[in-house]
Structures are given as structure tokens and as C-alpha cells.
Design a protein that fits this description.
By secondary structure, this protein is of the alpha/beta class. Helix content is about 30%, strand content about 20%. The strands form 6 sheets. It has an 8-stranded parallel sheet. The chain has a 6-stranded mixed sheet with strand order 11-16-15-14-12-13, sandwiched between helices. A 5-stranded mixed sheet has the order 18-26-25-20-21, with no helix packed on it. The two termini are about 45 Å apart. The structure holds beta-D-glucopyranose. Beta-D-glucopyranose binds near residues 136 and 190. Belongs to the glycosyl hydrolase 3 family. One of its GO terms (molecular function) is hydrolase activity.
């Protein structure tokens, strides 16, 4: 450890101020290829005013992938960089490298951190062999607004569940020996902080909330990632309490670095340093640079405020070089941790790449996770399908490879298993006709008539509907979160046939499912299921696999209800209180308060009942372990897995507490007719919250605890916390 320190310290001492400043610059891959191939400054480089020297001295590359390309860039760089400081290669490996897994929101619905971890291990393995050192993941922004396109990148609306997944992803990416294990990559948790709370669900928009709310709901998942050893943090685009995160000293320096003790690399989001100018907190690039470095941002991604202005700030006496040294040292330390000074090519290996990427076991896991991520929202006895049924598969996703979702830039739609192919493979002798019915947002009379005719000839209609993958993701927000009208019209037309209809949905956000859930007999939410999507969905539709997914984000009744989330407060005039007035209560005149499908909800092909819920004592004390147990019975005819969920409510707190808060969950597998007792241990620590003065502690007094299959249908028991 001592030698490591001495080494990077001595490198730092040999660096000129210009070299140090360039080390803080992150450029996209084309800058490197461009400079080498053309020998002159063109395109983006010229626009940014980046010189060849800046490129030569820069510290990291964004978005290069493939062992050959990475080795080529690194080799050329090492020849030209005076001190031979290797480049760090970073990229967005969000839900897979080339083996694409379901989108993170779908993974959230698996409630399965073990599989999530495995998916990150595989993503790391494929990325590492392709030369990548750092992934810009996990994204752990808590989300409550499905209009925001980036909800597909998050695991959902709950701080506890998000924290569980944050840890799992970091463990998967980094493993426990980042230096020695060349199949791992460093993780970068993002977007710090509270990017998911953009007003109106519009990307990059204002975020404003109390510090208590921030700490209670939004911060825990970032903290969990860091507790797991996450090496890097990325700033968010949004403001927080009036100051853009990227220049927010209170957030970065005081909270992240001082209070939480994070000493890893902090990177700006793409262009976010320069965006301090349009935000209106910096007059020019020099001021933006000063604010960002003062706030603790080490690497500036894709703008040139640092390279163009830090030196002049130092020369004018406005900036202490200690801040620059500290940032450079952190970057060098990460390079050291990744072993780049010993082997700058790390895991990059052209030969191994061919063996590892999209190998059978990786695709198998992708399929398994996709099966676990789909959520059965409705089933009026029509699923699973039977092999002797004649089926008409209809819709824009019937034969589409657009099943990967946003942030799968290395995934290939051509290699993705389409739904029709998956169904044919699963039921080769069944009659399955296929027609498109319409495109995603438009359609012709001809398409619709052809589908109508095909549907007339079968026993059951399977609709494959949804949003194209560019309708969610970054900068892809929607105000109307229903399916495009043409798809709703298709359902309405087919409904005339009065045949059983199953809808399979491929989309990146909770949708308003009016016109779908009320019009068809079964709804399977498949999200973007990834490389093996068609096979995974076919496994579920034919009952080869039994659905286990549970929503990790509420499906609103309609967009007018947003934000709607399960851990809301009671208000002073709750609608359903026994003494509630008829009119002056907290409600809408035209829609219910409740979401269409609540957090934690999901059906199976079997059914479960809960009985004998009990507490080990009426009082929880600090000394004795407190147990909550319930018996779960599989009341159906086939084996199945239930996810038993435990929620609590602090009935009277110093500040208002949510009606329910998820505290634990357990997967339980039951044969038909089998009963198992499921026991949870609940501790005083799990009852703590941030008080008005931000102190994190519990209150003595009454609590409700709930156990059940989702956040709505759970058995309530009351206990007392004694202190
Ligand atoms: C996104 C980040 C991403 C970065 C680099 C930004 O636009 O907000 O999530 O990691 O680009 O690609």
C-alpha cells in the first residue's frame, strides 16, 4: 500500500500544471481516433477548442469499446504521453455489454438481487475483456414520475429496494478484488443527487426538496452503493436547493466527501460543468470551472472549462493548486487500483473477447432474469397458453428486435430473440399466425384489416404492444403515458371479435393502461427484456415458467395522478378514515386516489393465501429480537414462488411518516398445497428516520407492521416500541 502511494505521489510531483489539468479532462473516443488518423483538429475537437496536447495529456476516454480499439488508443497514448500515464476507459454499460439484460426497472421488478448481481458480473466480464475499466452504473435515482424517460434506468420508487439493488450491482461489477481480478470493472454510481425528481417528469428539469426528504428517500441508494465500495460518483444535471449539483459544494464537498468520507473520483455528467452557465450560476466557463472544482468535481466530462481556465484561475490567485493536485491524485489512485500502471491494457483481449461475449451461459442468465422481471398484471384465466390453441400474434412487437431498451448501445437488435421466434421455438407444432396490425405510432387500414382477418381464424389473440425503445431513456419524456392511439385502436377493433385477448407490453415506464387492462383478458408487462426477450416471454406465456415479478414502481391510474407512490403520507383529511367527511377529503373528483397497479403487485399462475400472521411480542424492546411471522399457502394447482413483503408504519412520529415503508422481503417457493411459515426479524434500527433536526433515530410508541403479497393487500398488526 505504501509503495502504491509513493508511486502516484511521485508521478504527481513530476507533472506540470498543464499536464495535471488535462488529466481532469474526459473526452469521447472519436477525439482519440480523430487526432491520430487525421493529424489535425477537426469536428468536435475544433468546436471544443481542444488541442492535440490536451488529448495527449487527458486522463480518460468515454465510450471506446472493443479490445482492438482500446488497445490501439492506449498504445498510441502511452507513446505520446510524457510520463506514460495510462488512460482510463469508461463507458455506459448499464444493463449488459453485448449480452443485454432487461432494463434496470425490469430488474427491479425481479426483487432478486442475486440475479441482478450476476447480470452485473457478466456485464463486467464482457466489458473488461473489451478493454473497459469503469462503467457509468449503477444509476440509482429514486423515481416517482413515469413521464420521465429515465425511469427505465432506475430500479424504482422505493429507497430500501433501490439500496438492495445498488449494492448488488456494485458487488457484481467490482467483485472483491478490483486490482487482481481483471474481469471486473469499477462502478460509478449516478446521478448524484436526486436526478429522478425532475419537476413534471421533464428531463434536466428543476429539483427542489427539503433536506429531510432528500436524506430520507433519495440519498440512501447512493450511500448503499458507496458502502459497498463503489469507486466513483457522477454528478446530476439538476439543481438541488437552487444550486446545480455539479457546482454544489454543500452536496459534494460537505456531504459526499466530508460527511460520508467518499474519497474516490467524482465525475461531472456529460457537459454538466459548462451547463452551470445556462443554469445561471456561472457567468462564464472560468466561473463554471471554479465552482465545479471547488465543489469537488475531479473529472470534467466532455466540456473544456477546466482545460481552458483552471490555469488562469491559479495564476490569478483564485484557485489553490491543492484542489487540482487532490483531483489528479484521486484519478491516479483509481488507475493504480485498477492495476493500470502495471498493465495498461488490463483485461483487453481480442481472442478472449470472442469466447466470452454473448457466450451461452451469459445468454442463459439474461433469459432467466428476463423471466423473473416480467410482471403479470392481469389474468382472467387465459394464461398460460395451451399448445393446442390456435393463436394470432399481432402487434408492432410481434416480430421486432427492439426489445433491448435504451442504454444498450452495444447490443444488437438483429441478434435479439423476437417474440414470434420465441413462441415458435417453445411450441413448434402450434398454429401461430403473425401480423403487425400497426406500427408503434402509426398504422394503415390494410395492416389493421389483415390482423383482424388473422384474429378471426384463431382461438386466442396475443397482442405484442408497447413503446419503441427511443420513447424512454434520456431526453425521452412523455406527457401522455398511454400506448399510442393507433395501438389502442387496434385493441378496440380486435375486441369486436369477442375472443380472449392477451397483451404483452414492451415499454420503459409504467403506463396508463386504460384501453389495455380493461379491454384485454391478460396483461403481461415484459418491459424491455433484453437479448433473449422473445424466449423468456414465450416461457411465461406457455407456462414453462411461472411469473414471479412484482412492480417496483406504481402504475398510475392516469397521468393526472402523478406522482403516485406507495409510501405516501396520510394527510389531515384521508379519504377512507372512519370519520371522514363526504366532500372535504383528499381525493380527485374524477379518478381514484389509488394507482391502477400498486408497488409490489404481481400475479402468478398459482395463488397464495396468508394466515396466522403474528408478532413474537406486543412490545419491541432494544434487548430482545422481535419477530414477525406469517404462514403462506400455495392454494393453486401448480408450484410457484411468492415474494412476501414486510412494511411498517410509524403511527405517530415527530414528523409525518409514510403509510407504509418496505423493510424486508423474502422469496418463498411452494409446491401446490404446501404451506410455509415465513419469519422476519425486525429491529429498532429499521424504525429510524430523519427527524426535523435531521437526527436519525426512532420514536418510542405505536407502529403498524404489514405482511403480504404487495403494498396494498397486507395484513396489519400493531406493536409498541419501548425505549
Ligand atoms: C447521461 C449519463 C451518462 C453520460 C455518459 C449523460 O448524458 O446522463 O447517465 O453516463 O451521458 O454517456
Amino acid at each position: 500500500m505504501k509503495t502504491v502511494k509513493t508511486n502516484i505521489q511521485s508521478i504527481l510531483e513530476q507533472m506540470t500544471l498543464d499536464e495535471k489539468i488535462s488529466q481532469l479532462l474526459q473526452l469521447a473516443a472519436p477525439f482519440f481516433n480523430g487526432s491520430k488518423e487525421s493529424g489535425q483538429i477537426t469536428g468536435p475537437m475544433a468546436e471544443m477548442g481542444i488541442s492535440d496536447e490536451d488529448v495527449r495529456n487527458s486522463g480518460s476516454v468515454l465510450g471506446a469499446a472493443g479490445a482492438k480499439e482500446v488497445i490501439h488508443i492506449q498504445e498510441a497514448h502511452l507513446k505520446e504521453n510524457r510520463l506514460g500515464i495510462p488512460l482510463l476507459f469508461m463507458a455506459d454499460i448499464i444493463h449488459g455489454y453485448k449480452t443485454i439484460f432487461p432494463v434496470p426497472l425490469a430488474i427491479g421488478c425481479s426483487w432478486n438481487p442475486e440475479l441482478a448481481q450476476k447480470s452485473a458480473e457478466i456485464a463486467a466480464k464482457e466489458a473488461a475483456v473489451s478493454g473497459i475499466h469503469v462503467t457509468f452504473a449503477p444509476m440509482v435515482d429514486l423515481v416517482r414520475d413515469p413521464r420521465w424517460g429515465r425511469v427505465m434506468e432506475s430500479t424504482g420508487e422505493d429507497p430500501f429496494l433501490n439500496s438492495v439493488f445498488a449494492r448488488a450491482f456494485v458487488r457484481g461489477f467490482q467483485g472483491d478484488d478490483l486490482t487482481g481480478d481483471k474481469e471486473k470493472v469499477a462502478a460509478c454510481v449516478k446521478h448524484f443527487a436526486a436526478y429522478g425528481a425532475a419537476e413534471g417528469g421533464r428531463d434536466y428539469n428543476t429539483v427542489d426538496m427539503s433536506e429531510r426528504q432528500l436524506r430520507e428517500y433519495y440519498l440512501p441508494a447512493y450511500k448503499a452503493a458507496l458502502d459497498e465500495g463503489c469507486q466513483m460518483v457522477m454528478t446530476a444535471f439538476n439543481i438541488l436547493d437552487g444550486i446545480p449539483s455539479t457546482g454544489n459544494k454543500k452536496l459534494m464537498r460537505d456531504l459526499l466527501r466530508e460527511e460520508w468520507g467518499f474519497d474516490g473520483v467524482l465525475i461531472s455528467d456529460w457537459g454538466a460543468v459548462k451547463e452551470l452557465i445556462p443554469h445561471g450560476t456561472a457567468a462564464n466557463k472560468a466561473e463554471a470551472a471554479l465552482k465545479a472544482i471547488t465543489a469537488g468535481v475531479d473529472i470534467e466530462m466532455m466540456t473544456s472549462c477546466y482545460v481552458h481556465h483552471l490555469k488562469e484561475l491559479v495564476e490569478k490567485g483564485n484557485l489553490n493548486t491543492a484542489l487540482i493536485d487532490e483531483a489528479v491524485l484521486r484519478i491516479l489512485r483509481l488507475k493504480e487500483t485498477l492495476g493500470l500502471f502495471d498493465n495498461p491494457y488490463r483485461g483487453a483481449n481480442v481472442k478472449r473477447e470472442k469466447e466470452v461475449i454473448r457466450c451461452e451461459s451469459h445468454l442463459e442468465l439474461s433469459r432467466e432474469l428476463a423471466v423473473k422481471s416480467c410482471v403479470l398484471l392481469k389474468n382472467e384465466g387465459v394464461l398460460p397458453l395451451k399448445p393446442d390453441q390456435k393463436i394470432a400474434l399481432i402487434g408492432p412487437f410481434a416480430q421486432s428486435g427492439d426489445l433491448l431498451g435504451a442504454w444498450s448501445w452495444l447490443g444488437s437488435k438483429e441478434d435479439t430473440v423476437q417474440l414470434y421466434d420465441g413462441l415458435k421455438e417453445r411450441a413448434p407444432h402450434s398454429h401461430i399466425s403473425v401480423s403487425q396490425g400497426c406500427d408503434i405510432e402509426t398504422g394503415t387500414e390494410e395492416q389493421r384489416n389483415a390482423a383482424f382477418k388473422a384474429a378471426g381464424e384463431v382461438d386466442i389473440i396475443v397482442l405484442a404492444l408497447g413503446e419503441s425503445s427511443n420513447m424512454s431513456g434520456e431526453a425521452s419524456c412523455r406527457s401522455d403515458i398511454r400506448l399510442p392511439q393507433v395501438q389502442l385502436d387496434l385493441i378496440a377493433k380486435l375486441k369486436e371479435l369477442n375472443k380472449p385477448m392477451v397483451t404483452v407490453l414492451f415499454n420503459g415506464r409504467p403506463l396508463d393502461l386504460h384501453g389495455v387492462a380493461d379491454e384485454t383478458d391478460a396483461v403481461l408487462e415484459a418491459w424491455y427484456p433484453g437479448s433473449e426477450g422473445g424466449r423468456a416471454v414465450a416461457d411465461l406465456l406457455y407456462g414453462e415458467a411461472v411469473p414471479t415479478g412484482r412492480l417496483s414502481m406504481s402504475f398510475p391510474y392516469s397521468a393526472g395522478q402523478i406522482p403516485v407512490y406507495y409510501n405516501q403520507f396520510n394527510t389531515g383529511r384521508p379519504k377512507d378514515a372512519p370519520d371522514a367527511q363526504e366532500y372535504y377529503v383528499s381525493r380527485y373528483l374524477d379518478i381514484p386516489n389509488e394507482p391502477l397497479f400498486p408497488f409490489g403487485f404481481g400475479l402468478s399462475y398459482t395463488s397464495f393465501s396468508y394466515s396466522d400472521a403474528k408478532l413474537s411480542a406486543a412490545h419491541m424492546t432494544l434487548e430482545t429480537p422481535f419477530k414477525v411471522s406469517v404462514c403462506v399457502t400455495n392454494t393453486g394447482e401448480i408450484p410457484g414462488e411468492e415474494i412476501v413483503q414486510l412494511y411498517v408504519r410509524d403511527i405517530t412520529g415527530e414528523v409525518v411518516r409514510p403509510l407504509k415503508e418496505l423493510k424486508a422481503f423474502q422469496h418463498v417457493f411452494l409446491q401446490a398445497g404446501e404451506t410455509k411459515e415465513v419469519t422476519f426479524t425486525l429491529t429498532e434500527e429499521q424504525l429510524r428516520y430523519h427527524h426535523a433536526d435531521l437526527a436519525y433515530k426512532s420514536d418510542a410508541g405505536s407502529f403498524a407492521v404489514y405482511v403480504g403479497p404487495n403494498s396494498r393487500d397486507a395484513v396489519e398488526m400493531i406493536f409498541n416500541l419501548e425505549k
